[in-house]
Design a protein that fits this description.
With 463 residues, the chain is an alpha/beta fold. The strands form 4 sheets. The protein has a 9-stranded mixed beta sheet with strand order 18-17-16-15-11-14-13-12-19. A 6-stranded parallel beta sheet has the order 7-6-5-8-9-10, sandwiched between helices. A two-stranded antiparallel ribbon has the order 1-4. A hairpin with a 5-residue loop joins strand 13 and strand 14. It is globular. 38% of the residues are buried. The structure holds nicotinamide-adenine-dinucleotide.
Length: 463
Amino acid sequence: MKQLDQFIEWMHGSVPQEVSRQQFLQWAGRGITAGVVGSLAASCRTGQPTNNSPSITYTASDGTRVPSSSWQTPPAKVPDNPEQPIQLEEWKAKTEKETDTPAPLPNDQRVGYAIVGLGHLSLDELLPAFGESKKSKVVALVSGSPEKMRKVAQQYGVKPESCYSYQDYDKLKDNKEVQVIYIVLPNSMHAEYTIRGAQAGKHILCEKPMANSVQECQAMIDACKKADRKLMVAYRIQYEPNNRMIRQMVQDQQYGTVKFIEAVNNQNSANPQHWRHIKALAGGGALPDIGLYCLNTIRYLLGEEPTEVFAYQYSTPGDPRFREVEELMSWQMKFPSGVYASCATHYGVHEARRYRVYGERGWMELSPAFAYKGIQMQTSHAEGKIERVEQPKLTEKNQFATEMDHFSECIMQNKQPFTPGEEGLQDQRIMEAIYQSAKEGKPVKLPEIKTKDTFRGPMPKEA
Ligand code: NAD
């Protein structure tokens, strides 16, 4: 039975830590003998294939004892390094698409997150994404609704003593399991909760838009610097494989010099009472909420900063949704290399989230480009008499898990995040210039920045 104990020990990672030997026997089926389990454990360690003993039998439905099916564990490489995946025996031809075996870290080695604000993004995307993350785990919640928080805590295994009200927010300081505070609140609350979170000694992952003004963004950066804590803005698109690939194609000039980009992010909103339609809470309308994706992604693709913007803003008169915030923002941006971008964002038309990058010899498109799932690439270029239109399909990854794992890695390895606070501040500067241009009806110039990727940290290796 010692072998069984060893096997249970080896299984930690795929079986909950608290599994008892007795529970395991129940799960595994009482017909499996400890000898077989022992030989399986031995095979996984040594990487040798094993076969079962022909002496095993089980009781069939008619009561007869029949020999168990022949089973085998093929050879597998099991690296000691927790960040390297188990390598299974290959069976597909090299002509087939490669698959990834994830290498999730054991729970006790992951970075612990407190999620602040249990709204749509947290419940629909972020909390489920922890299930696909490799380096991050949820360990605390902050909410104004004890009833909702209790249910969420049960769903995701968060301890009752790690659930906080907004009044108790600063007590996160004493929770050693929490390394990161992820702020998923209305935009006007990002600055306060970032500053207080940094003062509580925690690293901060803040949802986009970073805040409602340049001053707020700067105060957030200063507070995190003062507290020697990391600050990252949750720009998931910069970690998404299709968008990363387009950036690479742009930078490699795959279709020659890029000259023009068009981008659109639209969705139809319904509730005039929602914070997104109240200027003091949202900071603006379609632009900071969804138009920001066009702005931030174009800056990311080019690695450049615009030197001029020219904008037009419109809201349907009498529409209660747009009493305080804009329905449409349409704007152009001019970049130092000569690229022009034309962008539009709308809160009153059906969903469309796409962009197209035009080079001298071809174009590259994502449609949808900014969705949570199902991002689709299309490219087109001419080869003789053929117009070659292609739709490369990349392996989909959970964008939120990838983004959180990047921040966790930055904390574990003491690296600067790829999208630090400075990246959010630069978007805020440009958005303020866009509003100014729309108000004045003329172009607004921005300081020329000659270096590339000026506001970003080192590019993460993995998307
Ligand atoms: P939501 O309205 O669904 O949730 C907001 C949460 O904040 C709710 O739980 C609400 O109870 C809480 N809250 C606390 N104080 C509040 C107040 N004074 N008024 C209103 N709510 C208050 O919003 P959401 O869609 O989850 O957005 C939250 C943040 O996440 C926003 O900054 C938004 O821009 C961002 N977001 C990012 C993405 C992305 O893809 N990265 C997607 C959606 C939202």
